[in-house]
Design goal:
The chain is of the alpha/beta class. The chain has helices at 3-6, 13-21, 33-38, 56-59, 75-86, 121-125, 145-152, 164-177, 214-220, 253-257; strands at residues 8-11, 26-29, 46-47, 67-70, 92-95, 136-139, 157-161, 181-185, 200-206, 221-232, 262-271, 274-282.
């Protein structure tokens, strides 16, 4: 048994119910959205389906409060807990037998797997467009929720951000998980920022806007390469941050910024509680 397995403790439903009742644990539900909604869930549980749980390596709090992870029968949750343990989480508990053995109260409200703990829905909704094994660049990656999700899936990822502390954390995480993730400190707003030419099959840009960078982004895409970009619009200022117009897209602006890429899909409006504009666009291959 690996070290990460020894850091995952199985708890029965009675003990789990006591911990939940006492507020002694943070609860993570790794089932599907449909299971969460239709079969009920533990009140207050974070919905993070098992195939998205790698994002939680970057987003779930590391404040010392134990995580109680569960699925329907305890198998998916055991795998999810092992991944979190490998990523350095401690105090992990797996609900033995899953929610099928739970006798406590259940909520039946709708869940949102793309909230603060999961990836952007724009990435997941466009997963069918991702080139297999795509060489990936994650711009302004922050804590790395998207970079980790793709790297755990086997994509070779370079994650860049100017926050050295976050990059060092990602670099350490990649070593723990033995995944194809490189992390580099890079100021994308430095004059003449260069991302290379034709290097990447996939470039991600989420909740980041520096208009002068777009020529470098387009140049960095390989033939047939895909850009998934989503960031805030001016409508977001009415809800809260950001409010600076430099960080907010005007209506229809994103399509102009990514020209001459061919737009495959796009959306604009309120998603996951944020007002955003998004495109999936690619470099047309020459005949």
């Amino acid at each position: 048994m690996g070290n990460e397995d020894r850091r995952v403790e199985s708890v029965g439903p009675e003990e789990a119910e006591r911990l939940v009742r006492d507020g002694a644990v943070r609860v993570v539900d790794v089932r599907t959205l449909e299971e969460y909604r239709d079969l009920g869930h533990i009140a207050g549980a974070i919905l993070l389906p098992v195939d998205l749980v790698a994002s939680g390596l970057a987003t779930l709090p590391r404040d010392g409060k134990p995580l109680l992870v569960y699925c329907e029968h305890g198998i998916r949750s055991a795998a999810a807990a092992r991944l979190l343990a490998t990523g350095g989480f401690q105090g992990l508990l797996n609900l033995k037998g899953g929610l099928s053995c739970w006798q406590g109260p259940r909520d039946f409200g709708a869940g949102e797997p793309f909230g603060p703990f999961g990836p952007s829905s724009w990435l997941v909704l466009n997963a069918d467009l991702l080139p297999p094994g795509a060489r990936t660049l994650d711009l302004a990656c922050g804590s790395g929720r998207h970079a980790l999700l793709l790297a755990v899936a086997g994509f070779p990822v370079l994650a860049v951000d100017r926050d050295r502390e976050k990059i060092e954390s990602l670099y350490e995480m990649a070593g723990r998980l033995a995944i194809p993730l490189q992390a580099e400190t890079l100021d994308l707003e430095a004059p003449g920022a260069d991302l290379g030419t034709g290097l990447y099959d996939l470039i991600l840009g989420f909740h980041y806007l520096h208009r002068p960078l777009f020529p470098a982004i387009l140049s960095a895409l390989a033939p047939g390469g895909l850009l998934l970009y989503e960031t805030f619009t001016v409508e977001q200022a009415r809800k809260g941050k950001p409010t600076n117009p430099e960080f907010l897209l005007r209506p229809g602006e994103l399509a102009l910024r990514v020209a001459p890429l061919e737009i495959l899909r796009e959306r604009e409006g309120e998603f996951e509680g944020r007002w955003v504009s998004a495109v999936a666009a690619h470099v047309r291959r020459l005949p």
